[in-house]
Amino acid sequence: MWGRSRWAFLAVGAFLLAGCAGxxxxxxxxxxAPTAPTTVPADPAKGAVPVWFVGGxxxxxxxxxxxxxxxxGGPDGEPPDHVGTAVTAVLEGRTDDPDHRTDWPEGVRxxxxxxxxxxxxxxxxxxxxxxxxxxxxxxxQLVYTVQSxxxxxxxxxxxxxxxxxxxxxxxxxxxPLTAADPYRVRALVEIDDPVDGVRVASPxxxxxxxxxxxxxxxxxxxxxxxxxxxxxxxxxxxxxxFAPFRLxxxxxxxxxxxxxSEDDPSGGAGRPPMSDSVxxxxx
Length: 283
Known about the structure:
Elements: H1 4-16, E1 28-29, E2 48-57, E3 60-69, H2 82-92, E4 108-110, E5 115-117, E6 120-127, H3 138-150, E7 156-160, E8 163-164, E9 167-168, E10 171-172, H4 182-185, E11 189-193, E12 198-200, E13 204-210, E14 216-223, E15 228-235, E16 243-249, E17 254-262, E18 275-282
Helix pairs in contact: 2-3
């Protein structure tokens, strides 16, 4: 696990740097298309719920958000349990991206629906046998997912078998859990749409969220031979904080990987830039 306090210091220092690296004449500058809201709340009417998984970055493992479609309704025509759907996806590792994973081991499931009352979100888990530790980012996966799906920042109480537990996966859970500092646990660049492996029409429309210096994002498109066929610069709606981005890239039919990454104002003196990528086919 990377040194969180050290990275937090470096991240703050990087955000204070003025200016950013030049892009050069070889890059296309794309004017950002209209953006979505900064956060992606659960929207049962549109069948969307945020789910958080773990992926590797140059700063160590971080949380990546996937916006998940709700497919199943409840019994007797009840609306879908979007919080339960999101938590189950985390516990079972139902990621849409092969670069992502869950830090939850097998043998844990949701025992009953998540409840929300008295300023606390309560998750009751059923655990089959002794579980390994340490937790990695498992508990933060759960907290971020429950809060995102419930549309609340209230802390998350974790029960095991209907009873309070002192610890789970080697971490204390005797008090309600709060979301950790996003600059320390979230990937600083995330592509929300499209999902990995889809077929899309041209122009390819990408949207996501990033926290980058001077709101500057770099992007490039690689073909199936991993050659860069297009590259450019776009921006988030605001710098030095998590803010949305959206861009359109015209591409001929073929198979591609699109990579979106931070700029590097340090000129290589700091850690490598964080990035996110999506593999897709243009029809």
